[in-house]
Amino acid sequence: MLAAEEITEPFTGKTIRSTVETRLAAAGVDVISRAYLQSHGLGGVQATSYDFHDYMAEKTAALATLRDLLISTGGDVVPMKRRAKK
User: What confidence tier does 38 reach under pLDDT thresholds 50, 70, 90?
Assistant: First the structure.
């Protein structure tokens, strides 16, 4: 994509994770759900010693929100042509 000048800088796994985090935050997903969804969890005494909730319902709802963001038609979707390898 760089060589074809379709993007200006390479993207990484971190770029994708950051984009997901930012888009979910903008969609109203709370910080706790986002942290558990990204496998970060939360630190501190309360989270590690007292909170044993698995957050499955919250993570499922966050994933449903992400799915909706990915399949929505309101964004700037740019079709990309597949190029043959040289």
Answer: confident
Domain ranges of the chain: 13-70
Kindly state the tokens that stand for 48. 């590690």
Q: pTM of the entire structure?
A: 0.69
Tokens standing for 76? 């700037």
Is 24 within 8 Å of 46 (Cβ atoms)? Answer: no
- Where does 1-86 have alpha helices with state H? 13-26, 31-37, 45, 56-71
Give whole-number Cα distances, 67 to 24, 38, 41, 54, 63, in Å.
Answer: 10, 15, 21, 21, 6
The 3-state DSSP class for residue 58 equals: helix
